[in-house]
């Protein structure tokens, strides 16, 4: 990761540190576990992208704090629930025991619920905390809720689980659905929310949407590839799990080489979308290049 | 339940029927299961109270549709997650198999997540669908999110689980915390949200808050009592589970008679709060009387 992306990720980390309720807030176990689930790692891509999208249309990125915190909480909740024994049953996440391994399954379910809820509370505080207009606040909440819900991220996770259990067919259509919804929807919502706060035009929102869609695709294909060729140390989680579970992936459908090519093409489409925005965004540019070259 | 409360509950049922995505929306299993979790039963007290609170301060209850649907989705999500094997491990809810018994644990977790998310999407649609002001919309979302989160409903469920496992002491302080948060917070948020949409003054909001707090208390004490003296047929769920699990309850702490007396006193406090509102609310009046006399 480049120095600029690392610095941006650290800013988001500091924001989350400040925004999440302190561990001492009762009941302290849930707040301690919420902080454990969210803090201490991650590239914070969604939050960084939201701020960069706002800047790329001429807005003030300091107004995006609520979206940045909320979207990272939503991402973290989705990981906590995805890791549960009845879902992907993962023991490690970012090199640490998953929340249910550390705090038990009941607390992990509640932590996910609490993070999702707190995300919307934080979004509703945007007018007061970040001077976002009330109308924009409602539009952003709708954007993010629709992206995270049953026709967005949760829908993608549902089809993923069904495919893994052989309850829907493991074909390209379903693979595309899973990627667009499970990963793409939240990236897209982060970018569009940043754009909305920055006062983007319809055309600019459309370019940000396209960036998000292709970025999500490139990101997920790379994720699939890393499960095959990555190292446990770099990824901070077990590798080879997709194959072990017979999970639908781009490498399993197309082979490694073609999957790499497809990720690369999607990243190129991202750069094309960026060219349509009024302010050059170095951050979004680097993110688009980084996505296919990352090792974690 | 009185005829008027039954009619109001049916109106809410029709609203939910219309508001939830149809089962045919892909992925259909999640939408089918969301409808299974929400529709077909329940007294819809939270939704009915929101509309009645709006009327009691002179507002138009038709503007409360978003709150009514959202709060019932949040209530339903909390039941789906509370029923999970790693939480209360219940097989029956409203006389039907619980969501995880019917659809499996993974889908049940996702259904809860989806309902919680959809609730906030629906709230964010209030300006468009129900003509609620943008500023009021943000205030209502904040109210409901804070009531449902880690310092509200989820916090109450956390302490409930900890108490059941002997991880916090089973004393009156914790019992009060659990009731005020697990049940009271959402009742209070329903009433206050209805009040906010109806344009309530600070003093009126305060009276609605008091109604909600005492109502929540009366409701939960009665719930505890019904687990001892109720019938499985009337309740649509197993009885005696609290005792079996050594769960902290009002009857276990105070005995049945004194618990009944405490529920009655709380209901009286509700009636006192109602007297401070500008428009007499027959619905809120009946709800306060009904809560201690119900058999389910």
Task: Tell me what you see in this structure.
Chain A has 296 residues and is mostly helical. Chain A has a single domain, classed as Farnesyl Diphosphate Synthase. In chain A, 72% of the residues lie in helices and 1% in strands. Chain A has a two-stranded antiparallel sheet with strand order 1-2. In chain A, a hairpin with a 2-residue loop joins strand 1 and strand 2. In chain A, helix 9 packs antiparallel against helix 10 and helix 11 runs antiparallel to helix 15. The longest helix of chain A is centred in the C-terminal third of the chain and has 28 residues. Chain A is globular, with a radius of gyration of 18 Å. The N and C termini of chain A lie close together (10 Å). The relative contact order of chain A is 0.13. Chains A and B meet through helix 2, helix 6, helix 8 and helix 9 of A and helix 2, helix 6, helix 8 and helix 9 of B.
Task: Spell out the blueprint of helices and strands.
The structure is a homodimer of 296-residue chains.
Chain A: H1 3-19, H2 28-38, H3 45-56, H4 65-82, E1 92-93, E2 96-97, H5 99-103, H6 105-124, H7 126-130, H8 134-148, H9 153-164, H10 172-197, H11 202-229, H12 232-235, H13 241-244, H14 250-254, H15 256-274, H16 282-293
Antiparallel strand pairs in A: 1-2
